[in-house]
User: Fold Leucine-rich repeat-containing protein 43 from Aptenodytes patagonicus.
Amino acid sequence: SVSAAFWEHLRHLGLQDFPCGLGSWNKSRFDACTRPRKGQPGLGADPAGQEEAMPLGDESPEALMELLSDWHSPWALPTDCSPQDQHLREMAVLAPELVRGSRIFQVLRSLRIVGKGVEEVDDGLLQLQQLEELILSANQISSITSANLPRTLKVLELCCNAVADLQDLCAQPPPELQHLGLAYNRLCGPSQDKYLTADFWPNLVSLDLSFNNFTDLLGLVSQLSSLQKLRVLVLQGNPLALIPTYRGFLVDSLPKLSILDDVHIGPDERHQFHGLARQPELIRSEARVVVSIGEIKGVPDPSARQLLEVGSEAPVITYSYCVMYKF
Assistant:
């Protein structure tokens, strides 16, 4: 489940272990802040004076932070870690009480669980009451119950999973969601088109449906047209993207769209395709595929054998080849 992966992730971050958390390396510093005594500075004290009064064995916040940032340090996070992970570790040095136990639920705004074999999005996520970004890419999720998602979510990324049905996700979707990523899943049209409307996603700005199995361009566009705030759309990798008039029809049908398939839509392109949306008869149930052969190895080049001298009586040998593509 996501909750199990989340707690394992926190354990891996070591928020309660040196140089983070509370321990002999910094305990007196926090004792001084919470219980000021004569001769020891409290909250608001001069940092320089606090450093002078630091007992032997204690480490300064600067020294502990350096252990987290220096890539030579054994306590540094890998370079591919998320900014949220780095932020949590820094907080565990400067204010360790804020990330102890259930308090971490109040500070976590982004959660990234990638490639951990997660199959279930359980209700444990509801404890993250401030969560705005949830990234669950490259797992084994086939279904999501929207009731288990925090209502504060603005970004939900589910790329590279096994989602085939959006019904459960759309039962009570997060009302403020701005980005929905469903690339590389098992979604098929037209049965799923009806869930991609403003009735479910009134604030959606970005939608990634690439590399699924959507085939009905007209039906999908009729649903997407209700998303008045949609500005970024990715549909490449679907069968409908092979239709010759695919891009032009989408550009003209969704006038508020700014980016389609990671390519900016400029004024010239809008003018070029103006009026195409009113000609649905141009959309045929056929695809156009261009195959370019760059190099073939292990086959004699026919042209090289025909460079004979003028007047030569040598026999001419011709070669021909047939290349077949099976779909």
